[in-house]
Specification:
7-stranded mixed beta sheet, alpha/beta, 28% strand, single chain, 22% helix, globular, 16 strands, 9-stranded mixed beta sheet
């Protein structure tokens, strides 16, 4: 049996889904949430003399369009860092961003992130953190009493395996104490940071979402060493 391409994430009676496309789907509100695309990153690094090809955005944008066409959301919200920096805001990228709502088939809104600071995006206002239904949407983690804080910024990854077999896999990370759900970075050219202890993790790998228990893996390794 193939691993599922989504994981249910019910929160206080509200139905949410963690999707293998590295997005959160709120079918009750028709809301598609994603974070950290970092468009224009290759061009930004080129300004620093790092020779990267200028085609990194194609995979990211095509992936976004594919999931939007499949789900037909009422609204798409990017939780910050849509772009990497103002240095990567080429005329071509500006044109793509201007055309994005029409290609998505719905409005696009942006919660301003740290990488948008100092940039102006035509027709796309950098909005503050805000509530949508039972959710509190922000770029950086911003726990808010009585709501599920859905955010990005951290680029969460899980460390799986050990030694030469160790992998860094993007993941959804939920802190039950803070009622905070951190989304994996959506962009194709983004790195990631390991999650702290105590968070529930769902790995994203090979088109699947898999519940992960880091404590169980650690326990298994210790058992093997003792054996």
């Amino acid at each position: 049996m193939n691993p599922p391409a989504a994981a249910a994430f019910p929160w206080r009676g509200h139905r949410l889904e963690l999707l293998a496309e590295k997005v959160l789907w709120d079918s009750q509100q028709g809301l598609l949430l994603l974070a950290d695309l970092h468009l224009g990153k290759a061009e930004s690094l080129q300004c620093q003399g790092i020779p990267l090809p200028s085609d990194g955005d194609a995979d990211t944008l095509n992936a976004l369009l594919a999931v939007a066409h499949r789900l037909q959301p009422r609204l798409v919200v990017v939780l910050g860092d849509l772009i990497h920096s103002r240095f990567g805001l080429t005329q071509e990228l500006r044109q793509k961003l201007a055309a994005l709502p029409a290609l998505l088939g719905c409005p696009l809104r942006l919660i301003g992130g740290n990488h948008e600071r100092g940039s102006w995006l035509e027709g796309l206002v950098q909005e503050p953190s805000q509530a949508m239904g039972p959710l509190w949407l922000s770029h950086a983690p911003e726990p808010t009493a009585g709501r599920l804080n859905v955010c990005g910024h951290r680029h969460p990854v899980a460390l799986v395996g050990r030694g030469a077999d160790r992998l860094r896999l993007p993941c959804f990370a939920y802190d039950p104490a803070l009622e905070q759900l951190v989304l994996p970075a959506f962009g194709a050219l983004t790195g990631g940071y390991p999650c702290p202890d105590g968070e529930a993790l769902w790995l994203v790998a090979d088109g699947a979402v898999v519940t992960w228990n880091p404590a169980r893996e650690t326990s298994t390794r210790r058992t093997r060493r003792v054996a």
